Amino acid sequence: MSAQIISGRAIADEIRTELRPRVAALRSRGITPGLATVLVGDNSASQMYVGMKNKAAQELGLHSRQITLPADTPEAELLGMVAGLNADPTIHGILVQVPLPAHIDEGKVIEAVHPSKDVDGFHPMSVGRLATDSGDFFAPCTPAGVVEMLLRSGHDPAGEHVVVVGRSNLVGRPIASLLLRKGRGGDATVTVCHSRTRDLGAITRTADILVVAMGRPESITADMVRPGAVVIDVGTHRVPDPSSERGYRVCGDVLYDEVKEVAGAITPSPGGVGPMTIAMLLANTVKSAELAAAEARD
Ligand code: GUN
After folding, report:
1. Which fold has domain 29-116?
2. Which of 138, 158, 218, 279 could form a disulfide with 187 if both were Cys (CB 3.0 to 4.6 A apart)?
3. Which atom of ligand 1 is nearest to the CA of 95?
């Protein structure tokens, strides 16, 4: 039997609908949540992602400021730009798109973003609070999107064995941390696999929920999935396809056509985790504006 298809587009729409009255409430108090995106260089994928984030922010009625800097921008200039955004009361969220050009120390830039505006959840303080399940923080958008998709499609991870494939700072590690937390969206039993894992398939087959963020196209095959398991595919790749007019097609880390015949539920790529990342960025920006407004009132 074919799997339940978990649509990231539909769930992201649901989240945006829930955000609208919160944005309206802020605006009625004279506050427009503001998101600043910073893109350095001309990486075409990054340009596309940042463009989508700004468009989504505008559609929700947020103030969106898109800053594009040339690839040879000195690190000091970028740090100065971030400092300016930290001090700007009309900006509640700052996102510096990564990867950055090689001459810029990414860690330094991430640490320069004030944690109260770190809607990406990349700052070491946000990462530390997530890892220790303590204090308030912004959860990184893609991992938070994965958890939200599970919950809203009826697959609460509590008590389940979740196998995460990938240990990146952007996705694999924070997903594991979120799933390990106590309470909503957490309480899972988590195994993290990576490029050095011996016999990957033997471990992925033990998953009730399999989250794949390995960054390699169509690498999870049907024989690696337990029948009935929930499969979340974080990957997005362009692969050459001479039969397509564009000369390429978009796919995930999972061999979708094959795995959907075995899985109980599966996310497509595109149309799965991607739209959720943007929805969670909007949610974090609205939350940041609400926190700033509450602080101003106190
Ligand atoms: N590059 C790829 N994904 C992301 C993301 O979620 N945030 C930022 N800042 N850069 C990215």
Report:
1. Rossmann fold (3.40.50)
2. 158
3. 9
Write down the domain spans for the chain. 29-116, 141-275
Mean pLDDT split into 10-residue runs, the chain, 298 residues: 94 98 98 98 95 98 98 98 98 98 98 98 98 96 98 98 98 98 98 98 98 98 98 97 96 98 98 98 98 88
Residue carrying structure tokens 């991992």: 143
CA distances (Å), origin 162, targets 41, 211, 254: 37, 7, 16
Catalytic machinery residues: 53, 97, 120
Q: How far is the CA of 26 from the centre of ligand 1 (A)?
A: 26
- Residue list, ligand 1 pocket, CB within 6 Å: 95-98, 120, 141-142, 170, 277
Q: Across-strand partners of 40?
A: 69
In this predicted structure, what is the pLDDT of residue 1? 67
At 260, which amino acid appears? K
Matching fold, domains 29-116 and 141-275: yes
